[in-house]
Each structure stands twice: as C-alpha cells, then as structure tokens.
C-alpha cells in the first residue's frame, strides 16, 4: 500500500470537511460534507457498506474535493452516529435497501442536489443501484467498488439455500443472520476484535470468517491490518460500540422484504455511465460476479485492483488512479452529462 501522496481525512477535526446532522424520513443521519476550493463541478454521494462508516472514504474524499466536487458521505442507518432503530419495535423493513435508497434521495432533496454522482462500496453498491432503480432521473453517473450492479430481485431464495446452490461465497451471511452473532458482539472487547478480524488485506493473516456460525470467535484476533492504524481502529471501535451491531446486522435480514419490494420493479438496463472497479482478491464478491452486468450497462468501464475487499483503504492510490481517468474521460470529458 502506498498512500504517501494522500492525506486522509482526520476522523475528528479536519478543515476540509464538516460533520453535520439531518433528520431524514424521521431518522437522524450523521454525514460528512465537503466543498471544493474552487467552482463546484457536481455532487458525489458516497455510500459505505459493512462493517464500515463514512470513514471508509477517508482517502477518497480529498481526491474528490480536488477534482472539484461537493462530497456527501453519510453514516448509513444503524452505523456510527446515525440512528440505529431497534427491531422490534421498528419493523425490519427500516433496514431494507428500498428504505436506504429512499432516505438517500430525501437527503439529496433536503440538501438541494438535483443531480448526483453515486459512489458505493459493499452494501453501498447495492444502495447506489437501488437509488438508480427508483429515481434514475437524479443520477448522472455511478461508480462502484467491488459490488457489481445487481438487477431487481426476481426470486426469493433463503440464504442457506442460496449458499448451497448458487453463492457459496455468501456463507458468512448465514452467521450474520444468526442472533448469536449480535449477542456475542456485546461481550467486552469483542467489537474491536471483530472489526480487526474483518478488516484484512490481501496476503495478511485471515481468520475463519467464511462460516455459518460462531463467526466472532472464528475471525480470531490477528495482528492489526497494515491499512488500519491504531487511531483508525480506535475510531471504528468507538463508533460501533455506540449502538452495537444490532442495526448493521439487520441489513442482512431483509432478503424477503427486498424481494417483495423489487419483484415487479421494471428494469431495462442502466443508461448512465458506470464505473466498476473489482478487487482481484475479493472473496465475498469476486470480480467474476460482475460479468453479467456487461449485458445491460452499455456505458460500462471496468477496472481491476490487486487488493482484497477493502480496496478503498488497502490501495487507495490504485483506486484513485482508475477513478481519475474515468472522471477526466467520462464524467468531465467532451460528452459530460453533468
């Protein structure tokens, strides 16, 4: 990893961004906001996944600001300083991708953003796709890291059957849905251990996270990752200890709800320019999963980085290199639609 030319956003006090709060559809969202020094060329909404925060974009935010874009990076529902509704009394659908997309669209409306570039990683890539599916008129471009564009769900397959028949690489999601996982993470020190065990780069010591139960113990407690400083891990730990893993794990318990929301949703392809950056050593979302998207995204740019799942942190310079080229040629090029 080489980040000598990138000064990451500090988690607490950085003059390049401000920390803001906004009530959106009855939920209080925390988000990080940055404005470029010169003229504003457009707005980019960055959406993180699991187990992540706005802070997962700490290397990307300076790059996007230098490119001349307004940057909005929320903690998603259940994460960090954003609300984490308990289920019950809240319905599990508060954590559905349709609701996540609706919240993001409303946030953009409140912030007076009529047109947006979407940037997602992990679950964030699923949410960017759903924002486009439900509100394509506000989207000018999409960039996703690791997560390909997934069309509407047309068939509901319970997670154990899905793992057994089609997606063995999703085995860990069985454990994420197991109530025991949330309970295990309530024990002292387990939040930090779990975050440390899941934030691993290619070639680093890995725990046995590809399991269907007892995942907290299975990830072990290896040496801290090369891309996570002690301060980084401290910040992640503090933010996840704020509300625990109840909210984040609920994202994985909405398979039936997501299916019901999307089974009749029209889909004829993706008409906006789309950048997909796959990670060569990604285990949960191997680049091969992105092959089908070639058939329904005519304006597709595909790139690959030599990292595992945490490409945004493991090798931000490689990601930025691909994104910078795409911005110059596609987003800001002669055929720009901003």
TrEMBL record:
<comment type="similarity">
    <text>Belongs to the AB hydrolase superfamily. Epoxide hydrolase family.</text>
</comment>
<dbReference type="InterPro" id="IPR000073">
    <property type="entry name" value="AB_hydrolase_1"/>
</dbReference>
<keyword id="KW-0378">Hydrolase</keyword>
<dbReference type="Pfam" id="PF00561">
    <property type="entry name" value="Abhydrolase_1"/>
</dbReference>
<protein>
    <submittedName>
        <fullName>Alpha/Beta hydrolase protein</fullName>
    </submittedName>
</protein>
<dbReference type="GO" id="GO:0016787">
    <property type="term" value="F:hydrolase activity"/>
</dbReference>
<feature type="domain" description="AB hydrolase-1">
    <location>
        <begin position="43"/>
        <end position="316"/>
    </location>
</feature>
<dbReference type="InterPro" id="IPR029058">
    <property type="entry name" value="AB_hydrolase_fold"/>
</dbReference>
<dbReference type="InterPro" id="IPR000639">
    <property type="entry name" value="Epox_hydrolase-like"/>
</dbReference>
């Amino acid at each position: 990893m080489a980040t000598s030319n990138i000064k990451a956003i500090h988690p607490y006090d950085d003059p390049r961004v401000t920390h803001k709060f906004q009530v959106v559809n009855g939920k209080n969202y925390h988000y990080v906001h940055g404005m470029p020094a010169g003229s504003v060329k457009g707005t980019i909404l960055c959406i993180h996944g699991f187990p992540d925060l706005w802070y997962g974009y700490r290397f990307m935010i300076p790059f996007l600001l230098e490119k001349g874009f307004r940057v909005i990076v929320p903690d998603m529902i259940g994460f960090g300083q954003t609300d984490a509704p308990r289920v019950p009394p809240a319905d599990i659908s508060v954590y559905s991708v349709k609701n996540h997309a609706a919240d993001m669209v409303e946030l953009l409306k409140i912030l007076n953003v009529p047109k947006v570039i979407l940037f997602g990683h992990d679950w964030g890539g699923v949410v960017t796709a759903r924002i486009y599916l439900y509100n394509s008129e506000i989207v000018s471009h999409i960039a996703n890291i690791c997560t390909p564009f997934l069309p509407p769900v047309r068939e509901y397959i319970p997670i154990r059957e899905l793992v057994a028949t089609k997606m063995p690489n999703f085995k860990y999601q069985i454990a994420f849905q197991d109530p025991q996982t949330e309970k295990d993470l309530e024990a002292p020190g387990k939040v930090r251990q779990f975050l440390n065990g899941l934030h691993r780069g290619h070639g680093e010591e890995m725990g046995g996270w590809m399991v269907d139960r007892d995942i907290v113990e299975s990830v072990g407690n290896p040496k801290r990752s090369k891309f996570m400083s002690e301060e980084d891990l401290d910040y992640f730990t503090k933010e996840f200890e704020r509300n625990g893993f109840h909210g984040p794990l609920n994202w994985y318990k909405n398979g039936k709800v997501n299916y019901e929301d999307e089974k009749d949703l029209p889909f004829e392809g993706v008409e906006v320019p789309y950048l997909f950056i796959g990670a060569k050593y990604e285990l949960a979302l191997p680049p091969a999963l992105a092959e089908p998207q070639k058939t329904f995204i005519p304006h597709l740019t595909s790139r690959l980085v030599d990292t595992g799942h945490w490409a945004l942190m493991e090798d931000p310079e490689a990601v930025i290199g691909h994104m910078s080229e795409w911005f110059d040629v596609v987003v800001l090029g002669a055929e720009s639609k901003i």
